[in-house]
Amino acid sequence: EGVLVLKGVERRYQQGSKTLVILNGAEFVLRAGEMVALVAPSGAGKSTLLHTAGLLERPDGGDVILNGRACGRLGDDERTAIRRNDIGFVYQFHHLLPEFSALENIMMPQLVHGLSVKEASDRAMQLLDYMKIGKRAQHRPSELSGGEQQRVAIARAVANAPLVLLADEPTGNLDPVTASYVFDALEALVRHSGLAALIATHNHDLAQRMDRRVTLADGKITSF
Ligand code: ADP
Ligand code: ADP
């Protein structure tokens, strides 16, 4: 039982005549309210795992179960719809829309979701305050520091109150001090909202602050 369950997940890439086996029967359970660190060397398959768990990529075998519903093998349209509701994703680089303000970037997924401008803007402001950058609401991404940009990206990822937050090196582009502050804000938000989070990081200090740590080896997920 878990919010996010991976069952025998297989993922292979064809590289010319060679088959790269990235996930080979990966098993994982993310429970409600849990923060789990994913720590593994570059090339081990962290992004592949997060993209598959986040329904961006379809597993070649096995399945991804979200809140009891088998979702991994559904078609692209269905996976996209579920992803928009249930999954928040944060990348190493913020991917914010450059021509929009911080506030508007956080409003966007909510407007797509059908909320009114007032509702979306109220919640976006609340999230910006929570991330301690309320004063930056009207700034565009290029007018924000790297740490501020990631705070906005994190707020945007949780704007639709997803079930699960997946993050791929969310502080990987920041200096250690900034990374620690951004992680403080991320952690507070996750704890406050009772979200479950799986966070890939190379930062061992941050990994130690999570509830438990897993790695990827030979296409399988193991605790360490
Ligand atoms: P990590 O995030 O741990 O660095 P990735 O999941 O990005 O690892 O990649 C794992 C391996 O799979 C790498 O060797 C990468 O080059 C390869 N890979 C990832 N995506 C693809 C793809 N779409 N096609 C072919 N190879 C891929
Ligand atoms: P990230 O920083 O998000 O991990 P990556 O560089 O690992 O980004 O991958 C970016 C995109 O390129 C992903 O969709 C991944 O699947 C794809 N990709 C990664 N490695 C390869 C590869 N060797 N061949 C083809 N696509 C790849």
Walk me through what this model shows.
With 224 residues, the chain is α/β, with parallel strands linked by helices. The protein contains seven helices and ten strands. It is globular. 43% of the residues are buried. The site of one adenosine-5'-diphosphate (ADP) has 4 residues, from loops.
How are the SSEs ordered, and which strands pair?
Elements: E1 4-15, E2 18-30, E3 35-38, H1 46-53, E4 61-66, E5 69-70, H2 76-86, E6 87-90, H3 102-113, H4 117-130, H5 146-158, E7 164-168, H6 176-193, E8 196-200, H7 204-208, E9 212-217, E10 220-223
Helix pairs in contact: 3-4, 3-5, 5-6
* Helix run count: 7
Class by SSE composition: alpha/beta
Q: Tell me about the largest β-sheet.
A: 6 strands, mixed
- Low-confidence blocks of residues: none
Q: What gyration radius follows from the Cα positions, in whole Å?
A: 17 Å
Could you say which small molecules are bound to this protein? adenosine-5'-diphosphate
> How does the overall form come out from the CA principal axes?
globular
Helix content: 25-40%
User: Which strand order do you get reading across the main beta sheet?
Assistant: 6-7-8-3-9-10
Separation of termini?
Answer: 21 Å
The number of strands is 10
What percent of residues are in strands?
A: 25-35%
Q: Give the SSE order as H and E letters.
A: EEEHEEHEHHHEHEHEE
Average pLDDT, rounded to a whole number, is: 96
Can you summarize this structure?
The chain is 36% helix and 27% strand. It has 7 helices and 10 strands.
